[in-house]
Specification:
The protein is mainly alpha-helical and about 90 residues long. It contains four helices and no strands.
Amino acid sequence: MEVFRSEFDAAWEFGALWISVWHPALSGRLARFKAVLELLDYMSAKGGVWFARLDQVCDHVQKLMAEGRWTPRYETFPLYQSPLPEFSKER
C-alpha cells in the first residue's frame, strides 16, 4: 500500500489524474482489501479528490469540450513518414 499511497500523493500534489489497477491476487483477500479501504479513507481525507465512474469522467470531458474549455489532441497514424527500415539479418 505504500507504493499506491506514494503514487496517489504525487498525483494529488500536482493535480494529476491517478488511476489504480488492482489485481485480484492482491486485492481479493480480506486483509488486503481492508488495506484498500484504509487507502480510500486516506485519499478522501486529503480533500479535493474526485472518485468518479467512467461515465462521469466522460460526461465531464464532454461538458468541458462543449464549453470550449478543453480540446482533445488528435494523433494521426502512422507516426512515421516512411516505411520502417528492415533490420539487418547480420548482427
